[in-house]
Amino acid sequence: MVPTLFVLSTLLALAAATPVARDMLVRESRLRPATGFVWTASAPANTTLNLRLALAQSNTATLVDALYNVSTPGHPSYGQHLSKEEVEQLVAPSPQTVNAVTAWLQQAGVTATNATPAGDWLSISVPVSQANDLFDADFAVYTHAESGQQTIRTMRYSVPLSLESHLDLVYPTTSFPSPTLKKAQFTSPFALKHDAGNNSFTAGCVQGGITPACIYDLYNIPANIRATQKSNSLGVSGFIEQFANQGDLQTFLGAFRPDLQGDQFALQTLDGGQNPQQASKAGIEASLDIQYTVGIAAGVPVTFISVGEQNQDGALGGFLDIINFLLSEQNPPQVLTTSYGEDEPDISPALANNLCNAFAQLGARGTSILFSSGDGGVAGSSSQSCSKFVPTFPSGCPFMTSVGATALNVTQQGNQLIGTESAADFSSGGFSNVFAAPSYQASAVQTYLSGLGGANKGRFNAAGRAFPDVSAIGHDLGIVVDGQLQGVDGTSCSAPVFASMVALLNDALAGAGKAPLGFLNPFLYANPGAFFDITTGDNPGCGTKGFPASEGWDPVTGLGTPNFTALKAAAGL
C-alpha cells in the first residue's frame, strides 16, 4: 500500500507541472496572409519584436461628434476647433485601463513606455518566444513572393479576458505591410511644346503636358495669387526613403514659376528620417509632391516631413507615427497631403479604426488631411488579379479626404484645340468594407447607386464609406528629378494639387480673421456646385470596367475637380 502522504505530494507535484489554462480572448485573426505573402518558417524564438499596444480610448464618440460640429457649415460650433489639450482629454484612456494593462505587463516582466501624447498607445520590446506566450500567438516569417520582402506576423493573437475592455489591439500582428506601396510613376519624357510662361489655357494645357500654369487655368486660380499669412502652413508626407531636392525645386520653379524662384521648403524628420540633397537621391514622389505644393500654393510655408524606417512597420507604421508626431505639436500644419496608400484587406479592421480615429483627432484641431485614392482602379492601390473590388486605405476612413484623378482629353474643333477632363482610368474608387457610409455623403452616394442599378452587384459593399471625395488632374504632370524634366501619372499628382488649393483658401480665411477649413468633407459635400462635374471615363479592374463616371458624385472622380473661385465663395470669401 502506497502511503497517503506520498500520493498527495505526487498529485500536487503533477498539478504544479501542468500549465494552468488562462482565460484568453482572440482579439484579431485572419484566415490567410495578405495577397502575395506565403508562410516561410516559424519566427526565431530570440528575435526581438517591437510591438505597440492600443489602449481603449475614453470618449471616441464625443470626439467624433466634436469633429463634425466644428466641420459642418451652419453648425454653431463651425470653425471652433479644439485645442491640443482638449483632444488629449477626450481620447486619454481611463486610469483603470492604464493600471490594468501595465499591471499585466509588469507581472510578465515587460516594461512599457508611452508612445503618444494622450497615452493611448504603449510600446514594448519582447522576444518572439515571450510574445507568443503573452498573446497565445504563433509569430512566423512570411515572404512576399514577387518582391522577396519578409515580415514577421501572426494569423491570430489573444489578450486576457480581464483586459477585453482595456486593450484594443496589438500591432504589428495581423496587418501586413505593402511591398508595392503606391507612388507616382514616370510616364514618358515630358513633351514641353509651349512657352511655360504663357498662362493661356490653350498654351498652358492643350499643346503640352500639365504645369502649374495649366492647373491655374483649369481650376480658376488667379494668376497673381500669393499667400501672405505665415500662420498658415502645408505639410507634405514623405515615406520609403523618397527624398525632396531643393535644387530640383529651383529648376522646376525656374521653368514653370519663375515668380516663385527662391522659395524653398522646410524639413521635419521622425523615425530616423532624412532628406539627403545629392541629386541622385531625389525621389519621384517627393519631387512631385514638393514641386506642386510650392509651385501652386504660392507663398504658403511648405514643410516636407520625412518619415524614416525606424517605425516598426514601414509606411503603415509611418502613417501612425506621422499623425501622432503632428498631434504632439501645438501648431500642426493646417493641411497635410499624403500620396501613399495600401489595400484595405491587408490591414486589420481594429488598426484601420484606430488610425482613422487619429485622423479625427487632428481634424478636430483644424487640419485638413488628404490622401491619394490609389492607382489600380477598382483593383485597389495598384493593378492586381481580383474577383471582388479592392478598397484602398485610408481612403475608406470617413475622417479624411480622398483624392482621385482625371486626365485631359484633347480634341480639335476647326483650328482650335479643346481640352476637357475625363476620369483617369487608374483612379481608384469604391466602397469600404470596414467603415460605414457617413451622413455627409449619404444623399450623393445613394443617387449614384440608384443610377448604377445592378451593375457589378456583389463585387462591392454598397453600404460602405464611398471614395474618392474629389479629384484633380493626375496625368502627365511635368516634374524635375535629378535635373531632368519628366512626366508623371497617378493620384499621387492629384492629392498635392488639391491640397495646395485648400492651403490657398486657408490663407484667405486667415487674412479675413477666420478659422481654417479643417476636416473638409462636410463642407465639400455641402457645396457640389463648387466643382467641375466629370461625367466621362471609368476605373477598370478585377476583370471589369469598374465604375463609370456620371453626373454628380461618382466612385471614380468623387464630386469632380475644384473650381477655386466657387470654393472661395462657398467659404464665405
Automatic annotation (TrEMBL):
> Which cofactors are required for activity?
Ca(2+)
Gene Ontology annotations for the cellular component aspect, listed alphabetically: extracellular region
Q: Which residues form the Peptidase S53 domain?
A: 209-573
Q: Which UniProt keywords apply?
A: Calcium, Glycoprotein, Hydrolase, Metal-binding, Protease, Secreted, Serine protease, Signal, Virulence, Zymogen
Top-tier EC class: hydrolase
User: Which residues does UniProt mark as catalytic?
Assistant: E285 (charge relay system), D289 (charge relay system), S492 (charge relay system)
Q: Which InterPro entries match?
A: Peptidase_S8/S53_dom, Peptidase_S8/S53_dom_sf, S53_propep, Sedolisin_dom, Tripeptidyl-peptidase_I
Protein origin, superkingdom = Eukaryota
**Details of cofactor binding:** Binds 1 Ca(2+) ion per subunit.
The record's catalysed reaction(s) read: Release of an N-terminal tripeptide from a polypeptide
Annotated residues that bind Ca(2+) are located at D533, I534, G552, D554
Q: Where in the sequence is the signal peptide annotated? A: 1-17
Recorded E.C. number(s)?
3.4.14.10
MF annotations from Gene Ontology: metal ion binding; serine-type endopeptidase activity; tripeptidyl-peptidase activity
**Which Pfam family, giving just one, matches this sequence?**
Peptidase_S8
List where in the cell it is found: Secreted, Extracellular space
One of the GO BP terms on file: proteolysis
User: What is its biological role?
Assistant: Secreted tripeptidyl-peptidase which degrades proteins at acidic pHs and is involved in virulence.
Q: How is this protein named in the record?
A: tripeptidyl-peptidase II
Give the species this sequence originates from. Answer: Phanerochaete sordida
